[in-house]
Amino acid sequence: MELIFPDVLYDSPEWEEGKYSKELASQLVHFDPGVSVKDTDIGHGADWPVVLVEIFNNVDWSSLFSVAGIGGVFLMGEKINKNIDAWVEIGKKFRHLIEKIKPDRVDEHGAALIVINDFLKNNQQLQDIDISLQIVEFTPVSWGKGILGKRPDALYIFTIKTHNKTIVYGMKSNMKIEFKHEISTEWIEF
Asked: For tag attachment on the chain, is the N or C end more exposed, with fewer CB atoms within 10 Å?
């Protein structure tokens, strides 16, 4: 998962190249000992120095949006269907991270955790759901690092299908849920 944090020391007397990224890494290592940080710039005109963070790389995100859906996701070698609590736990850990340190942008994996947390908040179950994702990019930058650094502005459209309804979420990379719409999948509705 990639996150972007603005360099809070930029344009201040304390600024030194790499100083904030080292401070940030020391805070994030409590969430994931394998965290990686890189300084980059995602400004579309003027400079906007940021820190690109790669975190929770031990999660196999590749199968999240596959035909297998949430049941096919693996966390540290354990199939999530086998251990739903592990999936909920990483969602809680991520929610705590964003409340404490407040990234400015998240990639589709971070957005998925936010959407799944919202889904669970409404007493939904993670078993037997399918999740699909469409990424709509806005104003990509060629000089950024990582995937998120090259497309910091995006709209993530998630479709979560359960046995009796479909919920469509539209979430910006700045973590704001722009829309959420529930659709009954009963045949009579069509």
From this structure: C
